[in-house]
Design a protein that fits this description.
32% of the residues lie in helices and 28% in strands. It has helices at 22-29, 32-35, 45-62, 112-128, 142-150, and strands at 7-8, 12-15, 66-71, 77-84, 98-103, 132-137, 154-161, 164-172. Strands 1-2-3-4-5-6-8-7 form an 8-stranded mixed beta sheet, sandwiched between helices.
């Protein structure tokens, strides 16, 4: 079992999810604005529960995973993100950690995803030392495309996930 490291940024604490976070997590994923470009359909409470407990499973099985992004002042959920192996069947993702992120709408437009994911990628570069990190973004998701560009991801191809086209991006490890 791998402990989920705590990472602090100026405004956020990236940490393990705890049971007290679940209501806010389920509420975030039930919001159609959050899922518009992430699967397209709001998640049921059961789907959210499965993904919520899966954050711990990623760490236990892969040695990396998703963090809960919490406000440093209040410890309230802002969003989630990190690195994963979701076995999507997309050739571009094979053997590489996949970055992903989602933030509750009340926190959009504040630069929090970029702040959190910079910390995640710094951790990846210094601890995980994977040769590269990849991510997928549905076409038209301008906000995530901007975040990916700020983080140094460049487009490398296309794929499909659950029948939906996705663009695949890569970012080489800064330590290689």
């Amino acid at each position: 079992m791998t402990d989920i490291p705590v990472i602090e940024t100026e405004r956020l604490r990236l940490r393990a999810p705890v049971l007290a976070d679940f209501e806010a997590y389920a509420s975030m994923w039930a919001d159609e604005r959050v899922t518009a470009f992430i699967g397209g359909t709001p998640r049921t409470r059961n789907e959210s529960w499965t993904r919520f407990i899966g954050m711990h499973g990623l760490w236990a099985l892969c040695g990396f995973g998703y963090w809960l992004f919490a406000d440093r002042r209040t410890d309230a959920l802002v969003g989630v993100g990190g690195l994963a192996n979701f076995e999507r069947g997309i050739a571009f993702l094979e053997g590489m950690p996949e970055a992903g992120w989602a933030v509750a709408p009340d926190h959009w437009g504040q630069g929090l995803v970029t702040e959190a994911m910079r910390a995640v990628l710094t951790w990846s570069d210094t601890v995980l030392k994977a040769p590269a990190v990849r991510c997928i973004i549905e076409p038209g998701h301008g906000a995530s495309e901007k975040v990916a560009a700020k983080l140094g991801f460049i487009p490398i191809g296309q794929g499909a996930h659950a029948g939906t086209p996705v663009n695949v991006y890569a970012r080489p490890c800064a330590m290689v």
